[in-house]
Amino acid sequence: xxxxxxxxxxxxxxxxxxxxxxxxxxxxxxxxxxxxxxxxxxxxxxxxxxxxxxxxxxxxxxxxxxxxxxxxxxxxxxxxxxxxxxxxxxxxxxxxxxxxxxxxxxxxxxxxxxxxxxxxxxxxxxxxxxxxxxxxxxxxxxxxxxxxxxxxxxxxxxxxxxxxxxxxxxxxxxxxxxxxxxxxxxxxxxx
Length: 191
Hints:
This protein is of the alpha+beta class.
């Protein structure tokens, strides 16, 4: 079953969203907010502190900003950030966010929690991803409302990163037109 943008507008409106919503004054002076690139900041200003859930659906998207001034959280994110020109740390004690950021060559920023210990992330270009409980990296969309709709209502029109072959897998029947990131310095997974 497909859902249109109006279905999602109803769901996010029920969660407290409205056109022009902006919580920048609440989060702009926090240490974690300043770490994020502009597209991630824009998303958090519009959807931060919402809990998005549709009736009769399992998934819930919790976008919390309560931890944005927590120094320990900031240090954790900073210590696990993939920086393009830094030496890559191939030890096994790195978190999944760092691991997948290295493999695709872009830092992934956690923006929300999903059920089953899954995390919604964004990159600096506005792409949305999920790292699920398996774990695996799933590209959702490069459009905010489409990403939220796919997660809220469910969709198989996504791409899954095959970390062993260093390539994205897309549904065979889909008309997938996106070029997705893969770190060009690796021909195979360095781990």
